[in-house]
C-alpha cells in the first residue's frame, strides 16, 4: 500500500458514526476541485467498508488508499472530475 | 483488406446483390438504425451512475425514524436523487415539535430487556426512550435532527402525505422548512416507478 499521498484537505470525523463519515466525506469532496485529494480521519471501524462502497458507487471520486492503525482509519479520496 | 473487390461496392447500401429487393434492404437498414439508437439510449441509462431511491416512511417511533434518514442521507452522499414520502406516523419525523420527542416502547418488542407487563406500566415508554437517547449520545450516533438537517442540505426531498396530514389533524406549517406538502399516493408511485430502489419503512 502506498503511503506517499499528499492530501489537499483533511476531514476529521473522529468519534462520528454511520452515516456521518460518508455523508461528511461527500460534502467535503463537493468543496474541492478536480484532482484534489481528501484525507478522511475516522474512528468508526465501519468507515473502512462504507467509504470503499461509497467511492465504488459514486461517480467522480476514486479511493486511493485506506490505512488502519491505533483505532484510527484514514482514507484518501481523489476527486476525479 | 481485400484487394480483389471494388471498395466502392463493399459498403454501398444502394447497390444490393442481384435478386434482393432494394426496398426490403432499405427497410432492414432503417430498422437497424432504429435499434442502434435504442441500444445507445439503453446504454446511456445503464451508465448513469446516479441512482434514484424512494422510501415510504410510515413509523414515528425513535428507532424506526433512523433507517429512512440514514439511508436517505447516505444515498444523497452517493449523488442519488432521493425522495422520502412520509405517511401516517412517519409524519412525526418531519413535524417540527413532534420529531424532537419521538418515543420508543418496550411493549411488543421482544428484543428489549423488559417484559411487556412492565413495559406497559404508565411512564415506561418515557424511561425506555431516555435510556435509548442516552445510548445514542454515548455512542456519538447522529441525532434525528442532525440527520434531517444534513439530508435537507444534501437535497433529499422530504414529502408529507396530504391525506394523513389532514387525518392526523396536523397543519401544513407544522413541518420543517423545505418539506413538500400536498402530495399523495399517485405522486409517490410516479416517483417509485422511475426509482432504482424503493423501500417501505
Write a structural description.
- The complex is a heterodimer of chains A (81) and B (201).
- With 81 residues, chain A is of the alpha+beta class.
- Chain A has one domain (9-79): 2-Layer Sandwich (Translation Initiation Factor IF3).
- Chain A has helices at 20-30, 47-57; strands spanning 9-13, 37-42, 61-69, 72-79.
- A 4-stranded mixed sheet of chain A has the order 1-2-4-3, covered by helices on one side.
- Chain A is globular.
- Chain A starts with 8 loop residues before the first strand and ends with a strand.
- Chain B is an alpha/beta fold and 201 residues long.
- Chain B has 2 domains: 17-47; 52-200, DsrEFH-like (Hypothetical Protein Ychn, Chain: A, 3-Layer(aba) Sandwich).
- Helix content of chain B is 47%, strand content 12%.
- In chain B, strand 1, helix 3 (62-77) and strand 2 (81-86) form a beta-alpha-beta unit.
- In chain B, helix 3 runs parallel beside helix 7 (144-153).
- Chain B starts with 6 loop residues before the first helix and ends with a strand.
- The relative contact order of chain B is 0.16.
- The model of chain B has no long low-confidence stretch (mean pLDDT 89).
- Classes of the chains: A alpha+beta (81), B alpha/beta (201).
